[in-house]
Amino acid sequence: MGSDTDLPVMKDAAKILDLFGVTHEVKIVSAHRTPEMMYTYATSAHSRGVQVIIAGAGGAAHLPGMVASLTPLPVIGVPVQATPLDGVDSLLSIVQMPRGVPVATVAINNATNAALLAVRMLGISDTDLVSRMRQYQEDMRDENLNKGEKLETQGWESYLNQ
User: Fold this and answer.
1) Counting runs of H as helices and runs of E as strands, what totals does the chain give?
2) Which terminal CB of the chain, N or C, has fewer other CB atoms within 10 Å?
3) Contacts 24+ apart (CB under 8 A), 127-136
4) What is the DSSP annotation of 18-58?
5) Which residues contact 87 (CB under 8 A, 6 or more apart)?
6) pLDDT in tens, 48-100
7) Under DSSP, is residue 97 helix (H, G, I), strand (E, B) or coil?
8) How confident is the model over 98-148, as pLDDT tens digits?
């Protein structure tokens, strides 16, 4: 992430990666304040065994694109709501990469989906991760069905006031 102010959002990615048992790093690497560190991190990631990079950034949000320009690895950008523009500036900055510099981008503040996408990418070569992802999806479905049944049984007012 570009700053520690991104951590309240990016912690959700770490929680999902922990849930799936995916080894990961949580670092502050700023495209603007520590460009040399960003360069070293991005150019060495593949040789260090990193397979996917999730980069969260707010405001100008240059980190995901700059990292993507320096590494052959897939990069997932998480636009972080950090300015009066409600994260739209970050979203547009990340999705408007020039041809040849792809950055997969998730919704504003949605580090959860970034991590789930990373798990799916890693699952291409890991059948255990695919099995765990299927279970995660089944659990989400079951949770949603249970909520629907509870709503129908209790009615909307009771459901909201529990």
Assistant:
1) 7, 3
2) C
3) 129/20, 129/22, 132/20, 132/21, 133/20, 136/19, 136/20
4) HHTT---------TTT-HHHHHHHHHHTTTTT---EEEEEE
5) 58, 79, 80, 81, 108, 109
6) 999 999 999 998 899 999 999 999 999 999 999 988 899 999 999 999 999 99
7) coil
8) 999 999 999 999 999 999 999 999 999 999 999 999 999 999 999 999 999
- Whole-structure pTM value: 0.94
Q: Phi, psi at residue 148, to the nearest 5°?
A: -60, -45
What backbone torsions phi and psi does residue 54 show, to the nearest 5 degrees? -105, 120
What is residue 158's three-state secondary structure? helix
b/e 15-49 (16+ beta carbons within 10 angstroms → b): ebbeebebebeeeebbbeeeeeebeebbeebeeee
Q: Which helix (H) or strand (E) holds 114?
A: helix 111-123
Q: Which residue has the tokens 């059948």?
A: 127
Looking at residue 158, its amino acid is: S
Handedness of CA 69, 73, 76, 80 (dihedral sign): negative
7-60 pLDDT, tens digit per residue, is 999 999 999 999 999 999 999 999 999 999 999 999 999 999 999 999 999 988
Q: Tokens representing 30? A: 């700023």
Give me the amino acid identity at 154. Q
Amino acid 141 reads: R
